[in-house]
Amino acid sequence: MPIPVPSESEPSPPARLGMVLEGGGMRGLFSAGVLDTLQGAGVRVDGIIGVSAGAAFGCNWKSHQPGRALRYNVRFCRDPRYGSFRSWFRTGDLFDAGFCYRTLPRELDPFDAAAFEADPCRFWVVATDADTGEAVCPEITVADGQAFEWFRASASMPIVSRPVPIAGRRFLDGGIADPIPLARSESMGFARNLVVLTQPEGYRKARSRLLLPVLSGLFLRRLPAVAAALAARPGVYNRALEHVASRAAAGAAFVIRPGAPLPVGRTSRSPEALRRTHALGQEAAVRALPALRRWLDKGGADGENGVFM
Q: Closest by alpha carbon to 204, among 236, 174, 182, 226?
């Protein structure tokens, strides 16, 4: 029996506080460090939209498991079942789906499904429909096998991942179609948003010349809508950054981002670099906390622009 694809939920009441989590593979451990620190300091939000690693790591906020994302990434980063070219050649996925999204959260570092479902904070993930190139944003309310398929889909990087089948449709990395879904969060009724980015101030995405031959030979033939979305992605991403900046200037967004390029890439396998990236997120959150509390209390008043690195 087909599993129904969740639809986007009705808008939330105005003025509620949302949180938007960018992806970026292992750069997402910066966001995990931010979230672990903010949650420990008692910060609460009403809804979260996570993209790619923002979804896969950010779900630990709702399950009340600070430190979990760092713990299992450090433990398994050099395990070929977790992420390796061997896995890619054997399964078609750089990150083995069975190990990462079933064995690990069920047995090796259990995800607290009961806590996730009991917490009132709402949680959405962004994925890209592989046949249309458009973003979908299902709400995750039950932490079951289907939820982990959505986490997997949201984080399935093109070229090194197979599209994830759900209910007769196929999905890939949410960052392809909606890399920083602040406008989406606002359209859902979250008038004020905490935005966690994984690239430093001044970063702009450029078209990758090295990627074009691969796209031409692979995606234009098999997944033309994804190829088109990837070609458009630099413009989409940079316009999203402009929107974030304008909303921060207006006091409607509070942005936490790294002060310099992070010491990891999307698929880094160095435990030391992963720990350092998480620590940088913690440090950024500690620096931001006093201003964040003022922003939460005053709604961006008194000249607070809400941008911290």
A: 236
| CA pair distance 210, 307, nearest whole angstrom | 33
Look at residue 1 and tell me whether its pLDDT is greater than 50: no
* Tokens coding 139: 């709400």
Which tokens hold the place of 207? Answer: 């078209």
Q: What is the pLDDT of residues 132-161, one digit of tens each?
A: 999 999 999 999 999 999 999 999 988 888
**CA end-to-end span of the chain:** 48
Q: What is the pTM of this model?
A: 0.91
Digit-coded pLDDT (tens) for 209-261: 656 555 555 666 789 999 899 989 999 999 999 999 999 999 999 999 999 99
Listed residue (182, 198, 305, 202) closest to 258, CA to CA: 198
Tell me what the mean pLDDT of segment 87-112 comes to.
89
Q: How many Å apart are CA 241 and CA 248, to the nearest integer? A: 11
Q: How many residues are present in the chain?
A: 309
Sign of CA dihedral 278, 53, 87, 111: positive
* Rg for the chain, CA atoms, rounded: 18
What is the four-CA torsion angle of 111, 296, 240, 273, rounded to 10 degrees?
A: -50
What share of the chain has pLDDT > 70, as a percent?
Answer: 88
Residue 204 burial (CB count, 10 A): 10
| Torsion sign across C-alpha atoms 137, 138, 140, 141 | positive
**CA dist., res. 131 & res. 191, Å (int):** 32
Q: What angle do CA 51, 124, 219 make, to 5 degrees?
A: 40
How far does Cα 4 stand from its chain's mean position?
A: 23
